[in-house]
UniProtKB/TrEMBL annotation:
Pfam families: PAP2. It comes from the Eukaryota. InterPro entries: PAP2/HPO (IPR000326), PAP2/HPO_sf (IPR036938). The keyword Nucleotide-binding does not apply. The chain crosses the membrane at residues 12-30, 71-96. This is PLPP7 phosphatase.
Length: 139
């Protein structure tokens, strides 16, 4: 039998994996509904089509960085300087998306909001260690 720490690790991993899949589906769906282009008229390349990154609203990078940052802030014991760096990392990711012309500031802000809401949703449906262990044993 695996140790308690490894079961807990599985729970964290699977919950974050579900959260990231949820983020990809929600952001892609919202982008297809809104069909908002970025601030510059850039023709999407092949890679953009493959990664479903053709529309700007909401910003997927911002939603993922907000969700992951909130997860790290809530579930890891971090010193104050690391907490500040984590928040700065999230802000830099959002700011960089605006600076390279892929998103409007409102796209990034909405991405941050959706990322936070997705974090809250995943926290509500958090999988217990036993459930994760069962899912891993089936896999």
């Amino acid at each position: 039998l695996p140790s308690t720490a490894s079961i807990s690790d599985h729970s964290l991993f699977l919950s974050r994996f579900v959260a990231l899949l949820l983020d990809i589906m929600i952001v892609a769906g919202l982008q297809k509904l809104a069909k908002r282009k970025g601030p510059y008229d850039i023709n999407p390349g092949l890679l953009d089509y493959l990664t479903m990154d053709t529309y700007a609203f909401p910003a997927g990078h911002a939603s993922r960085v907000a969700m992951l940052s909130k997860f790290f802030l809530n579930h890891l014991v971090l010193a104050i300087p690391l907490r500040i760096l984590l928040v700065l990392w999230a802000l830099c990711v959002g700011f960089s998306r605006v600076m390279i012309g892929r998103h409007h500031i409102t796209d990034v802000l909405s991405g941050f909001v959706f990322g936070y809401l997705q974090f809250r949703l995943v926290e509500l449906i958090w999988m217990s260690s036993n459930t994760c262990q069962m899912l891993i044993s089936i896999w």
